[in-house]
Design brief:
347 residues, single chain, 3 domains, 2 strands, 14 helices, mainly alpha, elongated, 52% helix
Protein backbone atom coordinates (compact mmCIF):
# COMPACT_ATOMS: atom_id res chain seq x y z
CA UNK A 1 0.00 0.00 0.00
CA UNK A 2 1.34 3.39 -0.93
CA UNK A 3 2.24 5.71 1.96
CA UNK A 4 2.53 8.82 -0.18
CA UNK A 5 -0.66 10.47 1.07
CA UNK A 6 -0.31 9.87 4.81
CA UNK A 7 1.93 12.83 5.53
CA UNK A 8 -0.88 15.39 6.11
CA UNK A 9 -2.15 13.48 9.16
CA UNK A 10 1.29 12.88 10.62
CA UNK A 11 1.94 16.63 10.47
CA UNK A 12 -0.99 17.32 12.78
CA UNK A 13 -0.95 17.61 16.56
CA UNK A 14 -3.14 15.23 18.54
CA UNK A 15 -5.72 17.98 19.06
CA UNK A 16 -5.75 18.89 15.37
CA UNK A 17 -6.08 15.27 14.30
CA UNK A 18 -8.99 14.72 16.68
CA UNK A 19 -10.72 17.82 15.31
CA UNK A 20 -10.33 16.72 11.69
CA UNK A 21 -11.74 13.28 12.52
CA UNK A 22 -14.56 14.63 14.67
CA UNK A 23 -15.91 17.19 12.21
CA UNK A 24 -15.82 14.56 9.45
CA UNK A 25 -17.68 12.11 11.72
CA UNK A 26 -14.87 9.58 11.61
CA UNK A 27 -14.07 7.50 14.68
CA UNK A 28 -10.28 7.61 14.94
CA UNK A 29 -10.27 4.62 17.32
CA UNK A 30 -11.19 2.35 14.41
CA UNK A 31 -7.91 3.22 12.70
CA UNK A 32 -5.39 2.40 15.42
CA UNK A 33 -2.49 1.89 15.35
CA UNK A 34 -2.34 4.94 13.13
CA UNK A 35 0.94 4.06 11.48
CA UNK A 36 -0.72 0.97 9.94
CA UNK A 37 -4.10 2.42 9.01
CA UNK A 38 -3.37 6.06 8.28
CA UNK A 39 -4.21 5.72 4.58
CA UNK A 40 -7.57 4.15 5.43
CA UNK A 41 -8.22 6.95 7.90
CA UNK A 42 -7.41 9.63 5.36
CA UNK A 43 -9.67 7.91 2.84
CA UNK A 44 -12.53 7.86 5.38
CA UNK A 45 -12.01 11.57 6.04
CA UNK A 46 -12.29 12.46 2.36
CA UNK A 47 -15.28 10.17 1.85
CA UNK A 48 -17.05 12.11 4.63
CA UNK A 49 -16.00 15.59 3.56
CA UNK A 50 -19.66 16.56 2.95
CA UNK A 51 -20.04 16.73 6.74
CA UNK A 52 -17.95 19.91 6.90
CA UNK A 53 -19.72 21.83 4.13
CA UNK A 54 -22.11 23.62 6.48
CA UNK A 55 -19.67 24.43 9.25
CA UNK A 56 -19.86 28.17 9.81
CA UNK A 57 -16.17 28.76 10.39
CA UNK A 58 -15.06 26.71 7.38
CA UNK A 59 -17.57 28.48 5.16
CA UNK A 60 -15.92 31.78 6.01
CA UNK A 61 -12.46 30.34 5.38
CA UNK A 62 -13.41 28.83 2.02
CA UNK A 63 -15.08 32.08 1.01
CA UNK A 64 -11.92 34.00 1.89
CA UNK A 65 -9.71 31.58 -0.02
CA UNK A 66 -12.00 31.72 -3.07
CA UNK A 67 -12.24 35.50 -3.04
CA UNK A 68 -8.46 35.78 -2.98
CA UNK A 69 -7.92 32.97 -5.53
CA UNK A 70 -5.92 30.97 -2.99
CA UNK A 71 -5.81 27.25 -3.69
CA UNK A 72 -4.97 24.90 -0.83
CA UNK A 73 -4.74 21.23 -1.91
CA UNK A 74 -7.20 19.05 0.02
CA UNK A 75 -4.46 16.47 0.74
CA UNK A 76 -1.97 18.96 2.11
CA UNK A 77 -1.07 19.51 5.78
CA UNK A 78 -1.78 23.21 5.15
CA UNK A 79 -5.46 22.45 4.48
CA UNK A 80 -5.89 20.61 7.78
CA UNK A 81 -4.04 23.39 9.57
CA UNK A 82 -6.48 25.88 8.02
CA UNK A 83 -9.33 23.80 9.48
CA UNK A 84 -7.74 23.78 12.92
CA UNK A 85 -7.05 27.51 12.90
CA UNK A 86 -10.64 28.18 11.89
CA UNK A 87 -12.22 25.97 14.58
CA UNK A 88 -9.86 25.85 17.57
CA UNK A 89 -9.60 28.44 20.30
CA UNK A 90 -6.17 29.23 21.63
CA UNK A 91 -5.39 26.96 24.57
CA UNK A 92 -5.17 30.03 26.83
CA UNK A 93 -8.99 30.05 26.92
CA UNK A 94 -8.84 26.79 28.88
CA UNK A 95 -6.05 27.65 31.32
CA UNK A 96 -8.56 28.16 34.15
CA UNK A 97 -9.40 24.44 34.08
CA UNK A 98 -7.24 23.19 36.94
CA UNK A 99 -6.71 19.45 36.58
CA UNK A 100 -5.83 19.25 40.28
CA UNK A 101 -9.41 20.23 41.11
CA UNK A 102 -11.52 17.06 41.01
CA UNK A 103 -14.79 18.85 41.61
CA UNK A 104 -14.22 21.31 38.76
CA UNK A 105 -13.27 18.56 36.32
CA UNK A 106 -16.25 16.39 37.29
CA UNK A 107 -18.59 19.36 36.85
CA UNK A 108 -17.19 20.22 33.42
CA UNK A 109 -17.45 16.63 32.23
CA UNK A 110 -21.07 16.43 33.45
CA UNK A 111 -21.88 19.83 31.92
CA UNK A 112 -20.60 19.25 28.41
CA UNK A 113 -22.15 15.76 28.38
CA UNK A 114 -25.53 17.25 29.29
CA UNK A 115 -25.33 20.41 27.21
CA UNK A 116 -26.66 20.93 23.75
CA UNK A 117 -26.79 23.74 21.20
CA UNK A 118 -29.96 25.75 20.92
CA UNK A 119 -30.87 28.34 18.30
CA UNK A 120 -33.15 31.02 19.64
CA UNK A 121 -34.84 34.15 18.30
CA UNK A 122 -34.82 37.66 19.67
CA UNK A 123 -37.55 38.27 22.23
CA UNK A 124 -39.54 41.40 21.37
CA UNK A 125 -41.32 41.77 24.72
CA UNK A 126 -38.55 42.25 27.27
CA UNK A 127 -40.93 41.72 30.18
CA UNK A 128 -41.61 38.13 29.11
CA UNK A 129 -40.35 35.78 31.82
CA UNK A 130 -38.67 32.68 30.44
CA UNK A 131 -36.86 31.38 33.50
CA UNK A 132 -33.29 31.69 34.72
CA UNK A 133 -31.81 29.43 32.04
CA UNK A 134 -33.46 31.02 28.99
CA UNK A 135 -31.83 33.95 27.14
CA UNK A 136 -34.04 36.94 26.44
CA UNK A 137 -32.14 38.70 23.68
CA UNK A 138 -29.70 38.38 20.76
CA UNK A 139 -29.84 35.92 17.90
CA UNK A 140 -27.50 33.00 17.57
CA UNK A 141 -26.39 29.91 19.38
CA UNK A 142 -25.83 29.17 23.03
CA UNK A 143 -24.36 26.30 24.99
CA UNK A 144 -26.91 25.65 27.70
CA UNK A 145 -28.18 22.95 29.98
CA UNK A 146 -31.69 21.86 28.97
CA UNK A 147 -34.06 21.71 31.91
CA UNK A 148 -35.40 18.26 31.12
CA UNK A 149 -31.85 16.97 31.06
CA UNK A 150 -31.62 17.56 34.76
CA UNK A 151 -34.86 16.67 36.46
CA UNK A 152 -38.25 15.51 35.28
CA UNK A 153 -40.48 17.50 37.61
CA UNK A 154 -39.96 19.91 40.47
CA UNK A 155 -41.38 17.34 42.88
CA UNK A 156 -39.45 14.41 41.45
CA UNK A 157 -36.01 13.18 42.36
CA UNK A 158 -35.41 11.10 39.27
CA UNK A 159 -32.78 12.54 36.95
CA UNK A 160 -32.76 11.33 33.40
CA UNK A 161 -31.51 11.96 29.91
CA UNK A 162 -33.52 13.01 26.91
CA UNK A 163 -32.48 10.96 23.88
CA UNK A 164 -32.59 14.07 21.69
CA UNK A 165 -29.90 15.91 23.64
CA UNK A 166 -27.10 15.97 21.18
CA UNK A 167 -26.65 18.00 18.07
CA UNK A 168 -24.23 15.40 16.75
CA UNK A 169 -23.11 11.93 17.76
CA UNK A 170 -21.40 11.60 21.11
CA UNK A 171 -18.40 9.75 19.69
CA UNK A 172 -17.60 12.75 17.54
CA UNK A 173 -17.32 15.12 20.48
CA UNK A 174 -15.11 13.32 22.95
CA UNK A 175 -11.84 11.43 22.74
CA UNK A 176 -12.91 8.91 25.42
CA UNK A 177 -16.31 7.81 26.69
CA UNK A 178 -15.19 7.51 30.33
CA UNK A 179 -12.06 9.56 31.08
CA UNK A 180 -9.54 7.99 33.42
CA UNK A 181 -7.99 11.23 34.63
CA UNK A 182 -8.63 14.96 34.95
CA UNK A 183 -6.16 15.58 32.12
CA UNK A 184 -8.39 13.45 29.87
CA UNK A 185 -11.44 15.42 31.01
CA UNK A 186 -9.76 18.70 30.10
CA UNK A 187 -8.75 17.36 26.68
CA UNK A 188 -12.33 16.22 26.11
CA UNK A 189 -13.75 19.60 27.07
CA UNK A 190 -11.38 21.25 24.62
CA UNK A 191 -12.39 18.71 21.97
CA UNK A 192 -16.06 19.52 22.61
CA UNK A 193 -15.50 23.23 21.95
CA UNK A 194 -13.29 22.48 18.93
CA UNK A 195 -16.05 20.37 17.37
CA UNK A 196 -18.95 22.64 18.32
CA UNK A 197 -20.27 24.18 15.11
CA UNK A 198 -20.56 27.86 15.99
CA UNK A 199 -18.46 30.91 15.24
CA UNK A 200 -15.09 31.05 16.93
CA UNK A 201 -16.08 34.21 18.82
CA UNK A 202 -19.12 32.40 20.22
CA UNK A 203 -16.93 29.55 21.40
CA UNK A 204 -14.73 32.07 23.21
CA UNK A 205 -17.75 33.77 24.76
CA UNK A 206 -19.24 30.46 25.89
CA UNK A 207 -16.09 29.11 27.52
CA UNK A 208 -15.78 32.43 29.35
CA UNK A 209 -19.42 32.12 30.46
CA UNK A 210 -18.71 28.62 31.72
CA UNK A 211 -15.71 29.92 33.67
CA UNK A 212 -17.95 32.57 35.25
CA UNK A 213 -20.54 29.92 36.16
CA UNK A 214 -17.87 27.96 37.98
CA UNK A 215 -16.72 31.03 39.91
CA UNK A 216 -20.15 31.00 41.61
CA UNK A 217 -20.67 27.24 41.80
CA UNK A 218 -17.40 26.56 43.61
CA UNK A 219 -18.56 28.65 46.59
CA UNK A 220 -21.38 26.19 47.34
CA UNK A 221 -19.81 23.54 49.56
CA UNK A 222 -22.99 22.46 51.34
CA UNK A 223 -23.13 19.01 49.72
CA UNK A 224 -19.45 18.35 50.36
CA UNK A 225 -20.04 19.17 54.02
CA UNK A 226 -23.24 17.10 54.26
CA UNK A 227 -21.62 13.97 52.81
CA UNK A 228 -18.08 13.58 54.12
CA UNK A 229 -15.48 11.34 52.50
CA UNK A 230 -15.92 8.79 55.29
CA UNK A 231 -19.71 8.43 54.96
CA UNK A 232 -19.87 5.69 52.36
CA UNK A 233 -23.30 4.38 53.44
CA UNK A 234 -24.81 7.85 53.14
CA UNK A 235 -23.08 8.30 49.77
CA UNK A 236 -24.53 5.08 48.34
CA UNK A 237 -27.97 5.91 49.72
CA UNK A 238 -27.94 9.48 48.36
CA UNK A 239 -26.81 8.33 44.91
CA UNK A 240 -29.66 5.82 44.74
CA UNK A 241 -32.13 8.40 46.06
CA UNK A 242 -31.24 10.96 43.38
CA UNK A 243 -30.71 8.77 40.34
CA UNK A 244 -32.71 5.69 41.33
CA UNK A 245 -32.12 3.00 38.67
CA UNK A 246 -30.95 5.28 35.82
CA UNK A 247 -27.31 6.32 35.88
CA UNK A 248 -26.59 9.52 33.92
CA UNK A 249 -24.25 9.18 30.95
CA UNK A 250 -21.84 11.73 32.44
CA UNK A 251 -21.20 9.66 35.57
CA UNK A 252 -17.52 8.71 35.82
CA UNK A 253 -17.40 5.23 37.34
CA UNK A 254 -13.79 4.08 37.47
CA UNK A 255 -14.33 1.80 40.45
CA UNK A 256 -12.97 4.34 42.91
CA UNK A 257 -14.35 4.71 46.44
CA UNK A 258 -15.50 8.29 45.98
CA UNK A 259 -16.91 8.10 42.42
CA UNK A 260 -20.53 8.31 43.61
CA UNK A 261 -19.80 11.15 46.03
CA UNK A 262 -18.18 13.07 43.16
CA UNK A 263 -21.27 12.31 41.06
CA UNK A 264 -23.63 13.60 43.76
CA UNK A 265 -21.68 16.85 44.07
CA UNK A 266 -21.64 17.20 40.26
CA UNK A 267 -25.41 16.71 40.20
CA UNK A 268 -25.95 19.63 42.56
CA UNK A 269 -23.37 21.72 40.70
CA UNK A 270 -25.38 21.18 37.51
CA UNK A 271 -28.49 22.33 39.36
CA UNK A 272 -26.84 25.67 40.10
CA UNK A 273 -28.74 26.96 37.05
CA UNK A 274 -32.04 25.68 38.47
CA UNK A 275 -31.88 27.04 41.98
CA UNK A 276 -35.42 26.20 43.09
CA UNK A 277 -34.94 22.58 42.02
CA UNK A 278 -31.58 22.42 43.75
CA UNK A 279 -33.12 23.67 47.00
CA UNK A 280 -36.05 21.28 46.69
CA UNK A 281 -33.91 18.25 45.93
CA UNK A 282 -31.54 19.00 48.80
CA UNK A 283 -34.40 19.53 51.24
CA UNK A 284 -36.20 16.33 50.23
CA UNK A 285 -33.00 14.29 50.24
CA UNK A 286 -31.90 15.44 53.68
CA UNK A 287 -35.39 14.92 55.09
CA UNK A 288 -35.55 11.40 53.66
CA UNK A 289 -32.12 10.61 55.10
CA UNK A 290 -33.18 11.86 58.55
CA UNK A 291 -36.25 9.63 58.42
CA UNK A 292 -34.14 6.66 57.36
CA UNK A 293 -31.63 7.30 60.17
CA UNK A 294 -34.49 7.52 62.69
CA UNK A 295 -36.04 4.26 61.45
CA UNK A 296 -32.68 2.50 61.56
CA UNK A 297 -32.03 3.74 65.09
CA UNK A 298 -35.43 2.56 66.29
CA UNK A 299 -35.32 -0.75 64.46
CA UNK A 300 -36.86 -3.45 66.70
CA UNK A 301 -38.56 -0.92 68.92
CA UNK A 302 -42.30 -0.38 69.35
CA UNK A 303 -44.23 2.44 70.98
CA UNK A 304 -46.18 1.45 74.11
CA UNK A 305 -48.77 3.65 75.77
CA UNK A 306 -49.07 3.48 79.60
CA UNK A 307 -50.92 5.62 82.12
CA UNK A 308 -48.89 6.94 85.10
CA UNK A 309 -49.93 9.02 88.05
CA UNK A 310 -48.65 12.57 88.27
CA UNK A 311 -46.30 11.84 91.20
CA UNK A 312 -44.70 8.93 89.29
CA UNK A 313 -44.24 11.17 86.23
CA UNK A 314 -42.51 13.77 88.42
CA UNK A 315 -40.24 11.10 89.87
CA UNK A 316 -39.47 9.81 86.39
CA UNK A 317 -38.59 13.34 85.28
CA UNK A 318 -36.37 13.72 88.35
CA UNK A 319 -34.51 10.49 87.55
CA UNK A 320 -33.98 11.59 83.95
CA UNK A 321 -32.62 14.99 84.95
CA UNK A 322 -30.20 13.56 87.48
CA UNK A 323 -28.95 10.65 85.36
CA UNK A 324 -28.95 12.47 82.02
CA UNK A 325 -31.04 9.68 80.49
CA UNK A 326 -34.20 9.74 78.45
CA UNK A 327 -37.49 8.40 79.81
CA UNK A 328 -37.48 5.31 77.61
CA UNK A 329 -33.94 4.52 78.77
CA UNK A 330 -34.90 4.82 82.43
CA UNK A 331 -38.02 2.69 82.04
CA UNK A 332 -36.14 0.09 79.99
CA UNK A 333 -33.45 -0.18 82.66
CA UNK A 334 -35.96 -0.54 85.50
CA UNK A 335 -37.90 -3.23 83.65
CA UNK A 336 -34.73 -5.17 82.88
CA UNK A 337 -33.60 -4.98 86.51
CA UNK A 338 -37.00 -6.18 87.69
CA UNK A 339 -36.98 -8.96 85.10
CA UNK A 340 -33.52 -10.17 86.10
CA UNK A 341 -34.48 -10.10 89.78
CA UNK A 342 -37.57 -12.22 89.13
CA UNK A 343 -35.52 -14.70 87.09
CA UNK A 344 -32.90 -14.80 89.86
CA UNK A 345 -35.54 -15.65 92.45
CA UNK A 346 -36.53 -18.65 90.40
CA UNK A 347 -39.83 -17.48 89.04
Amino acid sequence: MSKSINRPLFNLSKRELNLVCNIHHVDINKFKPLDLYVDDLLSAIFNNRQNVHNRVNLKNIHSHLGTNNIIVPRESPEYFKVMANAECLDRSHFEWINTNNNRLCNFLWAYVNSAKTRTYNKIIHSNLSLGDNKPQSINGHELYLPENAIIAESNSNEFYENNDFYTFDNIYRFNSSIPKSNDEIKDNVISYFDTWNVLLDEKAESIKTLENKWSFIKNNDDIEIWITLQELEKTNWAWSYIHKTKTPSWFINNGNTHDKRNGIIATFDLLHEYKYKRVLLKKNMQSAWSQKAYRDKNNGKKAVSIVLSEDIIKKLDFICQNTDRRKNEVVTRLIREEYEQIKKDGH
